[in-house]
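Sat 14:20. Reprocessing the chain from the morning session after the first attempt stalled halfway. Input below, unchanged.
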Amino acid sequence: MALNQVEQKFLAAHRLGRLATIGPDGGPQVKPVGVAYNEELGTLDIYGFNMAQSAKYRNVERQPLVALEVDNPAGVGAEAQFLEIRGVAETVTGGNAPFPGGAAEIIRIHPRRV
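Finished this time. Tokens:
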């Protein structure tokens, strides 16, 4: 499922999100993450430091169903804006983090519902 231009523009302006994965006990785990829309693949790429050693990375390797929430932190009430993206994630090595020191390993989300 490709994101439309409005959704892509929103993501370009908001690079921080919250990734929900399923932990080993079956419960949810939510963590703040860096996010970028990969227009070429139509995916959301999740970046961070020491990604391959993180619980979220291991969670995705075990159970790929995820949800990502990106919002406008300044928005209140009617001004609030957000995207919730649900999809199937995979772990990928070889990504280029959009910030210095970011890990080569990323989590790539293939959107199924926006």
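The beta strands are 16-22, 28-38, 43-47, 65-71, 82-93, 105-113.
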